[in-house]
């Protein structure tokens, strides 16, 4: 799929993306605390918590990713987080439906399971 050099470059990008995701989650939680009200506040907190946890996971796991299967699982974590948290944020900002949130959650679950399989195959 990727040469070792290409995989290393992509993993560095995934690590940086995780760190940016965690930073965005902190900003989102500040927004939720100071600007959002009611259900929107609770929903944005959930989006921020999920984004923060998965941003930290990406930043921590990507540098230690030995195989392409691990890399695929981490890409799924990023995609699922963007779908889940992004859907909640877009619902608040643009009043779009949260249709992608359940799919994003499913992608997250499957990605964590894929990461577990990759770890067992090592």
UniProtKB/TrEMBL annotation:
Species annotation: Agrilutibacter niabensis
UniProt keyword terms in alphabetical order: Membrane, Signal, Transmembrane, Transmembrane helix
Signal peptide per UniProt: 1-35
Designated name of the protein: Uncharacterized membrane protein YgdD (TMEM256/DUF423 family)
Source lineage: Bacteria, Pseudomonadati, Pseudomonadota, Gammaproteobacteria, Lysobacterales
The organism's place on the tree of life at top rank: Bacteria
Segments passing through the bilayer: 42-62, 69-94, 100-120
Pfam family, one: DUF423
Entries under InterPro entries matching the protein: DUF423, TAT_signal
């Amino acid at each position: 799929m990727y040469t070792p050099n290409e995989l290393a470059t992509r993993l560095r990008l995934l690590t940086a993306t995780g760190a940016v995701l965690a930073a965005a989650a902190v900003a989102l939680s500040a927004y939720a605390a100071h600007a959002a009200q009611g259900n929107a506040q609770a929903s944005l907190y959930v989006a921020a918590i999920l984004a923060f946890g998965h941003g930290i996971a990406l930043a921590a796991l990507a540098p230690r990713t030995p195989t392409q299967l691990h890399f695929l699982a981490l890409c799924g974590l990023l995609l699922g987080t963007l779908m889940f948290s992004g859907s909640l944020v877009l619902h608040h900002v643009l009043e779009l439906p949260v249709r992608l949130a359940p799919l994003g959650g499913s992608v997250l679950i499957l990605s964590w399971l894929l990461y577990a399989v990759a770890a067992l195959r090592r």
